[in-house]
Every structure is written in structure tokens, then in C-alpha cells.
Amino acid sequence: MQAWQVHENGEPGEVMRLQDVEPPTPGDGQVLLKVRAANINFPDALLCRGQYQVRPPLPFTPGVEICGETEDGRRVIANPALPHGGFAEYAVADAAALLPAPDALDDAEAAALHIGYQTGWFGLHRRAGLEAGETLLVHAAAGGVGSAAVQLGKAAGATVIGVVGGSGKAAVARELGCDVVIDRRSEDVVAAVKEATGGRGADVIYDPVGGEAYTQSAKVVAFEGRIVVVGFASGTIPSPGLNHALVKNYSILGLHWGLYNTKNPKLVQHCHEQLTELAARGAIKPLVSERVPLGGAADAVQKVADGLTTGRIAVVMEEAA
């Protein structure tokens, strides 16, 4: 079979190589999956660079989120078990963690439903307790993670403010349903949020960026607001001032979605059922901005690494296209 392999750490476009290899052999409790589509996530770039919290042995195949087909013909979504990731014709995954692919979504959309949307659901509902009528601020609102949070926030009845970088991404954020869109490249984010909220600030802030975005969040969080720390796509990990959280009376919430797979797998299943229902009635639909064949995976991962994308890029196998 063909699979992209990383033999040394570095930039995805430089270290990913498409090779002919033997199909992986499932271990105990695992199943072999024929990959129908693989969604590209920022962690795929971090894996290539050797900067992710999980460091699989070299060589490995990246690709942490797929829509695949079981040997008995079931269409499922899964997180492949590294080092046998999803940028290949076949991958392996834990049998107990397979989730049925929603009928309302095609292969590329289904592949993009898992990590970003589950992270958004757990962040907004489990951690922050977002309520209808509240104001949600989403950083990087046109990106893969941010776009999921925007859709979930709208589905929950929140007023959504999206922060983006550039006019093209601003247009995407508006199409996603953001009530207010702020272009951080041409506008003062803090002033714009305060103006949009009448000085009150945002009740819930969803931050997959870190760095300057977190600094802005702390300045515009409302009384009894919640800042959900999702990731650090900016490359800068902020150091929150706990005295500031005290005097402004807000919460800083960490979210590591992967822990729920081991700590509370039944809740992951419940989350998927909720997402499937939302997809069935059209309330959410992964924004797949680009679909590429397997041969284009390395360049696509590099685009995600460089922050040049909106929504998701999916690697789609020819037979499933």
C-alpha cells in the first residue's frame, strides 16, 4: 500500500515521503481500516516537527483523524493508532473507540467531525457551560477548530464574535454565522469586542491560539466569564496572571479532549450522538475548504502548519471520492 512516512523530524513538506509499505497489522483490540478520507489537523504538523505531546517511533505515518471502512463494510470515524496514521491507504485503530460516521456527512466531512467538534462540544458545554443568550468569542474563527466552535455556539443559541486574520477569513467567518467578525490585522480586537458587547465583554472565550490572543481574552472577558484554553497555535504559551483572574472574577479552563477517551469514554460516545443529531438537522457541517488526493498530503499538511488555510483540508482516497 502507499503511505506517507516521516523518517526524521522537520517541516512536513520536507520530511513526509510517499512510499510503498506493507499494510499495518492490528494489535490486540485493534482493527484494520481502509481509509476513505483523512482530515488534516495542526497536531499532524507538530508530529512531523517532533513537537507533539505524543512522539511515535520513526518512521511513522501521520494523520490523526479519519473516516474509514471496516472489513465488514461499516463506515466509521476513528483516531488511528500511531505510528500507523491516516495518510495511507490503510490504518489501524482501537476497536472500542470506533464511532459510526453520520449519514448526513460525506467522507471528508465525517473525517473532520471528530477532534475539532468534540473539542468544541466539551469546551463549550462540559467545561464552560455555555448558555443560550450568552456571548461567545472565538479566536481563529475561520480555522478548523474555530469554525467548529462557531457552529456549535450558534447551535447553542449564543451570540458569536469571531476573530480572524485577513479579509478572506473574515468572509468565511460571516458565512459560518458569526454575528460579529473582527479582523485582528486591521482592527483593535479589544476595542471592537468592548464596542460589540456594550463594554460588558464575552461570557465565554474559546482560544486555540494562545499568545497575544490570550492577552486580548483577559482584557475582554465578562464578569463571571470563562476562558477555555484549547491550544497554542501561535507557538507562544501564555502565563496567566492569577491576580487578574481574581480581581475580575473569571475562570481559566483547560481542555485536553484526549483525556476523555481514557477518563470517561461513555461521555465521548454521548458527545458523538449529540454531534450526529446536530449534523442530521443541518445545525453543524464541517467546513472542508479543500479536498486533495493522497499524493497531495504533504503540501496540504505544510499549508496547515503555515496557517494558510480556512476550515479543513481533507485527503480523499480516489475510490471514496
From TrEMBL:
Entry keyword Kinase: no
E.C. number: 1.-.-.-
Keywords noted in UniProt: Oxidoreductase
SMART domains in alphabetical order: PKS_ER
Recorded superkingdom: Bacteria
Region described as Disordered: 1-23
Any one Gene Ontology molecular-function term assigned to this protein's record: oxidoreductase activity
Gene3D superfamilies from the UniProt entry: Medium-chain alcohol dehydrogenases, catalytic domain, NAD(P)-binding Rossmann-like Domain
Pfam (any one): ADH_zinc_N
Entries under InterPro entries matching the protein: ADH-like_C, ADH-like_N, ER, GroES-like_sf, NAD(P)-bd_dom_sf, Quin_OxRdtase/zeta-crystal_CS, Zn-ADH-like_protein
Keyword flag Transport: no
Boundaries of every Enoyl reductase (ER) domain copy: 13-315
PANTHER family: QUINONE OXIDOREDUCTASE-LIKE PROTEIN 2, SHORT-CHAIN DEHYDROGENASE/REDUCTASE
Name of protein: NADPH:quinone oxidoreductase family protein
Organism: Streptomyces tibetensis
